[in-house]
Design goal:
With 208 residues, this protein is α+β, with helices and mostly antiparallel strands. The chain has one domain: Jelly Rolls (Sandwich), CATH 2.60.120. The chain has five helices and 13 strands. The strands form three sheets. It has a six-stranded mixed beta sheet. Strands 6, 7, 9, 12 and 13 form a five-stranded mixed beta sheet that branches. The radius of gyration is 16 Å and the shape is globular. The structure holds fe (ii) ion (FE2). Fe (ii) ion binds at residues 1, 93, 95, 147.
Length: 208
């Protein structure tokens, strides 16, 4: 995630989830297939919000916050909890590696963008929106992963993110922040909830 305050608190990831993610990431598959395998692992072992302390679950009025729950010694993946108060949002960004997200509280509204050029210069086109409710799990991999996430609900949202990188070393999974105009395009698709679309979401993102 981009621009979030980061708090390194060591390994606090549930053991069953760690075991499943290790198996998925050691498969030797490419990024997209690895994201699908990790998404399946997270769906089977989605933690409760209690993986964070009450103070952490309350969030921060200044910004959404991220808490590193685990970084694998090899640097092959990291598990991060993100807390969003109502209205808090990321910048538009993409990522350096595959990413899997499971929502454990509240609702996260996601906007997906395409990068375009031409006479108007480099700009973004919003190509899809979707709402990821509690219990939904989705995964994706670059390229074609430009998005913005916002808590549009009335309650604090919490999500578990698994990245294919050492976030304690990188500080963030963000490859680029896109401070570009968003120009009109065809009406964005409203996608079905990610809970039913883990693999479908991967295939949808592949075409961008
Ligand atoms: Fe992101």
């Amino acid at each position: 995630m981009a621009g979030a305050a980061t708090q390194e608190l060591g390994t606090r990831c549930p053991p069953a989830l760690l075991t499943a993610v290790r198996a998925a990431t050691r498969s030797g598959a490419g990024w997209r297939q690895t994201a699908a395998l990790v998404a399946a692992a997270l769906a089977r072992h989605l933690p409760s919000p209690d993986v964070l302390t009450a103070a952490e679950r309350a969030g921060d009025p200044a910004s959404y916050t991220q808490h590193i729950l685990h970084t694998e010694d090899s640097g092959s993946f990291s598990v991060v909890a993100v807390v969003w108060r109502p209205g808090q949002a990321t910048p538009i960004h993409d990522h350096v590696t595959w990413c899997v997200v499971g929502v454990v509280a509240g609702n996260e509204h996601e906007e997906l963008y395409g990068l375009a050029g031409g006479p108007a210069g480099e700009h973004l086109v919003r190509i899809a929106v979707r709402d990821n409710g509690t219990g939904s799990v989705s995964g994706f991999a670059p390229p074609g992963d430009i998005h913005r996430v916002r808590n549009t609900g009335a309650e604090t949202a919490i999500s578990i993110h698994i990245y294919g990188a050492d976030i304690s070393r990188l500080g963030s999974s963000v490859r680029r922040r896109y401070d570009l105009p968003v120009l009109a395009a065809a009406r964005p698709q409203r996608r079905r909830p990610a809970s039913t679309l883990t693999r479908r979401a991967l295939s949808l993102r592949r075409v961008r």
